[in-house]
Structure formats: structure tokens, C-alpha cells
Recover the amino acids of this structure.
């Protein structure tokens, strides 16, 4: 089944979500999922990420790493809370190649974080580089 959107949870899992077609219902559903005002951001030409603009506290490393890979640069800010990924045009399904990239990025982050339980990175900077390298190996830049 093709879903309109995916939710990247703060702990790295990805789940599908279907959004209402009417703008008010869609906006309301996005607020519920992200836990506050849902602000859209474009990190890929064919996708939007909806993030909590009200100050969620838990960083979303998988969504941040995906956004970095898609943008082709290291973002100097974090994304917080659950993040919803949709197609760039409201109501369109998320393209299958992007669905695969969202899952690949999240899986890469979860693998690196699990590895760190037994082997810590030598520094925060080295950890960031390792995480981003893993995701960029799996996800092409969104050009």
C-alpha cells in the first residue's frame, strides 16, 4: 500500500501515516503527529519535512542526518521531535525512491547508535562524521 507520508520517530523508527485531503484536517493531523505547530522545510526538491516549530526537546538524529544527506551539507542546527516526510505537492504519495531513502537513513542511524553502545566515538565531531558518512553512503544528495 502506498502511503502519503512517513513519520521518523525520535528513536529512529519509521512508520507510515495517511493525512486528510482537506487543508484544515491535514494541518491538524500534522500538528498532532509532530506534537505542536508543524512547520514545513524543504531539504529535497521532491519532499517536505514537517517539524515541530514549538520547541520539541528530543533531537531527531535520523531526520537530521537525512536532511543533511539530501541537502548535501552538514546542517549546523538539529531537528527535534517526530518529523513527517511528505511529497512536495500536498496529497501526492511520497515517491518510492524517497520512501526507501527515509528508511535507509533511519536504519543507518540506528545501526551506528547501537554500535556506540559498545564503542564510543572518540569525540562528538568524530561521531557526527561517522553518522553522516553512514547515511550519505545509503542516501544520495537530493539534487
Amino acid at each position: 500500500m502506498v502511503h502519503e507520508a512517513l513519520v521518523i520517530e525520535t528513536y529512529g523508527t519509521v512508520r507510515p501515516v495517511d493525512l486528510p485531503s482537506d487543508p484544515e484536517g491535514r494541518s491538524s493531523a500534522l500538528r498532532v503527529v509532530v506534537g505542536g505547530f508543524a512547520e514545513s522545510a524543504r531539504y529535497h526538491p521532491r519532499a517536505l519535512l514537517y517539524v515541530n516549530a514549538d520547541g520539541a526537546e528530543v533531537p531527531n538524529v535520523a531526520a537530521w542526518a537525512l536532511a543533511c544527506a539530501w541537502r548535501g551539507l552538514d546542517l549546523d542546527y538539529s531537528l527535534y521531535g517526530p518529523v513527517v516526510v511528505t511529497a512536495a505537492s500536498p496529497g501526492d504519495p511520497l515517491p518510492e525512491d524517497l520512501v526507501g531513502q527515509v528508511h535507509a537513513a533511519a536504519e543507518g542511524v540506528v545501526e551506528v547508535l547501537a554500535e556506540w553502545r559498545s564503542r564510543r566515538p572518540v569525540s562528538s565531531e568524530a561521531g557526527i562524521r561517522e553518522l553522516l558518512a553512514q547515511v550519505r553512503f545509503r542516501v544520495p544528495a537530493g539534487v
In short: The first strand starts at residue 5 and ends at 8.
